[in-house]
């Protein structure tokens, strides 16, 4: 009886870990990056992800087959100018009183290093 409980416990833990790891966003940091720098960038990416979900996801995430997808923005789209000035939607919905310059920088780090989605998935229509 004791062993059965133990086995069930292990299975439950395994499933839980599987579910959690599926949801987690992976990052693609450059090979040449030094380990301690990687640790720093990974932490920045985690922070950026939280900020992204708070400020950007409602407009930018898409749902494909029940899975929420963060778009793969191109590097040239991830510049402060494009984000703030050249976009009327952002001017009103994302003023720097809501998302500070520093926070935007962290979000861009996250979006820049985020592992790309399946390339079949279309991103950023018309771009
Ligand atoms: C109120 C909705 C809304 C919010 C909130 C929002 N965006 Fe956008 N964003 C848009 C729209 C609309 C476009 C233009 C759509 C397009 O051209 O595909 C856009 C375009 C972009 C682009 C492409 C820029 C380009 O034109 O090259 C990037 C990158 C982007 N948003 C990032 C962000 C980030 C990062 C945040 C959060 C800090 C954010 N957006 C918050 C609506 C929003």
Describe it.
With 127 residues, the protein is mostly helical. It has one domain. It contains 6 helices and 2 strands, in the order H-H-H-E-E-H-H-H. Strands 1-2 form a two-stranded antiparallel ribbon. A hairpin with a 2-residue loop joins strand 1 and strand 2. Helix 2 crosses helix 6. The radius of gyration is 18 Å and the shape is elongated. The chain starts with a helix and ends in a 14-residue tail after the last helix. The mean pLDDT is 82. Bound molecules: heme C. The site of heme C has 19 residues, from helix 3, helix 4, helix 5 and helix 6.
Q: Which bin fits the share of residues in helices?
A: 55-70%
SSE succession = HHHEEHHH
Strand order of the largest sheet: 1-2
**Assembly annotation:** single chain
Taken together, the total number of domains comes to 1
Low-confidence stretches: none
Would you count the extended β strands for me? 2
* Class from helix and strand fractions: mainly alpha
| N/C terminus separation | 60 Å
Gross geometry: elongated
Radius of gyration from CA coordinates: 18 Å
Q: How do the helices and strands line up, and which of them pair or pack?
A:
Layout: H1 2-23, H2 35-55, H3 57-60, E1 62-64, E2 67-69, H4 80-84, H5 88-93, H6 101-113
Antiparallel strand pairs: 1-2
Bound molecules: heme C.
Q: In summary, what is this structure?
A:
The chain has helices at residues 2-23, 35-55, 57-60, 80-84, 88-93, 101-113; strands at residues 62-64, 67-69.
